[in-house]
Every structure is written in C-alpha cells, then in structure tokens.
Amino acid sequence: MTARNPTDVAAQYATDAHLRTRMLTHERYTVGPELEPAVDAALALTGTERVLDVGCGPGGFLGRLRQQGHTGPLTGADLSPGMVATAQAAHPDVVYVQASADALPVVDASVDVLTARHMLYHVPSVPDALREFRRVLRPGGRFLAVTNTDGYMAQLWALTDEAARSEPSLTALSRTRGDFATAFSEVNGEAWVREAFGNVHVTLTDSALVFTEAAPVLAYIESLMAWQRLGEGQQERGRAVLTRLLEDRLAAGPWRVSKRMALLSAAHT
Ligand SMILES: C[S@@+](CC[C@H](N)C(=O)[O-])C[C@H]1O[C@@H](n2cnc3c(N)ncnc32)[C@H](O)[C@@H]1O
C-alpha cells in the first residue's frame, strides 16, 4: 500500500473516523513515554509564536496549545476538507484552512514555528513540501516533523504478514505495513530536512502498545488503508484469521507492539 496514493489518502482522511480509532488506541494502550511531552520539549514555545501545523488532522495539537494558554496566532492546514471542518468545529479559537503542504496559502516568512506531524509520508514530494515550509517560515523560525521510524510497530506487521501467508484470499494483508518508512522516516527524513534547511536534529522516543485482548488490535488494523481495499468476504476471513493468530499470541500474556517515533527539528537560518 503506498502512503502517497492520492485516492487512498483522500479516502482514509475524508473524515477523522479511521484516524480517531488509532488515536484512541494510542491513548488507551500506550506504555512508556507519551509523544506530546517530547514535542513540547523540542518546541520549547513561549506562548506568543505564530504556529502553523500542516496536516493538522482533527486539530488536537493546536487546540491543546490554545487551551494551555498559547496567545500567538495558531493556524492548522490540512488537505482534507472533512478534517478541516472537524478541527474548526472542535477548536473555534484556532484558524483552520484547507490546503496542500506544497501550496500553502500563507505569506512568505510569516510563521515562527511550523510543525508537520505524521504527515510527510503522505505528500507527493517531500522536497517540494519542505521548500514550501521554508518559504513560509521567517529567518530564525523553527521546523519540527514527527514521523514513524523504520521498525515502527514491527510486531503488528508480522501479524498481518502471517495472516496474508495463511491463505491466498488474504494475500493483500501483506500490504498493511505500507511504504511509510520509505516515504518519510528518520533515515531519509534526516537527509531531506538537512538538505532543505542546512541543519537537522533528530531525537527518538521509545514506547509500546500493550494489548491484553484481540478487539482493539483488530479495530486498529481495520482502520488502515490496506484493509479498506479488501472485499467484504475477505474482511470476514481476515477477521477470523487475525483473531486466531492474536489469541495464540495473547495466550502467552500481554502482547507488546513497539513504537519508536522520530522528531526531526531544524532552524531556518
Ligand atoms: C496521519 S494524519 C496526522 C494528523 C495529525 N497531524 C496528527 O498527528 O494526529 C495525516 C494528515 O495529513 C493530511 N494530509 C495528507 N496529505 C496532505 C497534504 N499533501 N497536505 C496537507 N495535508 C495532508 C491528511 O488529510 C491527514 O489529516
């Protein structure tokens, strides 16, 4: 499954339903350091900066900043009109606009801090998006990308790969992992960000999802792009096979899915 296929991206994020499922899973089942304190530490905001969050989804990040007392202008941009509508309804004290990362309706050098959280693996061209981010950031402004590392959730993909191998009708499940790491990870991302800004700093956060039952794992898999492509009969088979494989794993105790994320920061010098 390609993370950059425009049809899949539009379908996946037409509303926040699929993303919401995954966000709730992370909220409920994460063990270890949360992402938000790492983001806050990397940004070290004073509260007055003009912040632009690109690929803002349902807008929770900027909504949180406003709620915590950020007084500077906060703008979220997202390609999906559905996401923008959801974000605007949830956070009326933040401005949300529908726009693509590589064509932002934003004046040159007018942003102090630009964030791109879990979205650069979806853009058609990472260098084009980074060039646009650099254009809107003021000299001295700062950029932060958050992304998944190469081995992110390896145990989950081993599970879907095993299901894919178990019978021909489920072969498509081998694409559940997708090509997110190839599209934008800590490895190629570091090189791209350095090329765009002339500097980059990478920090990693290590945590895990720990499950004691199959249902939330199934819900997570069913929220992903590859699953949406399965026919109804294949989905029914997929559920049965995945449940059996999960019950085998859970018989040995809580099942741990590791998640290492990367924060890539740069200054617009
Ligand atoms: C995985 S979600 C991340 C949402 C949010 N940043 C978060 O971390 O929860 C990816 C978001 O990027 C948006 N997106 C995808 N391609 C985009 C593009 N080319 N320009 C702007 N937003 C895009 C999607 O609509 C979706 O809301």
UniProtKB/TrEMBL annotation:
Coiled coil location: none
Matches recorded under Pfam families: Methyltransf_11
Presence of keyword Secreted: no
Segments passing through the bilayer: none
InterPro entries linked to this entry: Methyltransf_11, SAM-dependent_MTases_sf
MF GO annotations: methyltransferase activity
Domain Methyltransferase type: from-to ranges: 52-144
Keywords, comma-separated and alphabetical: Methyltransferase, Transferase
Protein origin, superkingdom: Bacteria
Keyword Transferase among UniProt keywords: yes
Name this protein carries in UniProt: Class I SAM-dependent methyltransferase
GO biological process: methylation
Catalytic activity, EC: 2.1.1.-
